[in-house]
Specification:
Length: 101
């Protein structure tokens, strides 16, 4: 949450796949806190690939955790997660996650 507070803009937008976007830092903070409150076990995370350009960062992640709502999630060759972040004035203003099996 320290990174969230430091690097995300107040008017930020986060979207998961095709789900409706969550708008604003307060709403996204609540979304993040709810997700983390339901983590049963966190086994690891690693950035696998990064590409960047003017005010955009694209990354692919390996994640391994168990969540109360989603069960065991291991993002690897069978379940990848990508992220596209758009930046403005040193802050993330839009982030979209893409994942699936």
């Amino acid at each position: 949450m320290e990174v969230f507070e430091k690097y995300y803009a107040n008017d930020m937008v986060i979207q998961e796949n095709e789900n409706p976007a969550t708008v604003g830092k307060d709403a996204n903070r609540q979304r993040e806190l709810e997700f983390f409150s339901k983590l049963i076990e966190f086994r690891g995370a690693e950035v696998k690939t990064v590409a960047f350009g003017d005010d955009v960062i694209i990354s692919k992640w390996f994640l391994d955790y168990t969540h109360a709502d989603y069960g065991k999630r291991t993002y690897d060759r069978t379940y990848d997660q990508g992220s596209v972040q758009k930046w403005k004035d040193g802050k993330v203003v839009h982030e979209r996650f893409y994942y699936g099996s």
